[in-house]
Amino acid sequence: MDISNIIEQLNMTNYSLYFSQPLPIFIYLLIAFVAFRIPYVRGYLSLFHHLLHGMIKGIFERRLLNKSNGITIKKRRLASLKDTISIYAAYSGVSLAIVGLFYLIANQSFQFILLLFLVLVLLSVSQWIRRITSILWVLSFGTLLALPIYFNEPIVVMHLSIFLSSYLFVHSTFHALQLCTQSLLNRKDREVSGFLTRLKWIPSLLLGLILFSQSLLIGFFIETTILSFL
Prior knowledge:
This protein is an all-alpha fold.
């Protein structure tokens, strides 16, 4: 009986030692990809990406684009241009945030990452207070972030912070790819009457390609520059 207890304690010790260190980053990315492919999990976790994207887009539109006053004939073109610029600015802002998160991961500031997530979730209360589902998400996701910090579980904090950062990168990359495919599908479904109308899908496709290429470059930069000394 004593020998079995000793063996069990040794196994638990080895288990704790193994998970006390970060796993290879591709494992977190793989888990994030699997989570992204599960509809309910994607719907739950993707709300944070939408929150961050919406906040950056809203700030950009209010600060830089709200003073644009075009002629009545050009209002539609101006609105389309503003949407394109604000979408690109929001994606770029999310990409910079992802770079910052992985920089914190490389410096092992795992608890600070969860605190940043928690602050953004709390800030979202002022924006989503009208919808009961959003309030429930804020409460549940905020609890998920706060519990490991409150109970002082550094291993959980470490793995959770790396996973959430990886998921944010995976979601941003596939969202940009989805923009490309969606523009192609809209081109096929849209009823067109002329050559110029037929070309309206091209800006959306180019924007999607730019954002997808930007995500790949950021992933390459993170892997070769930031995580090389992790």
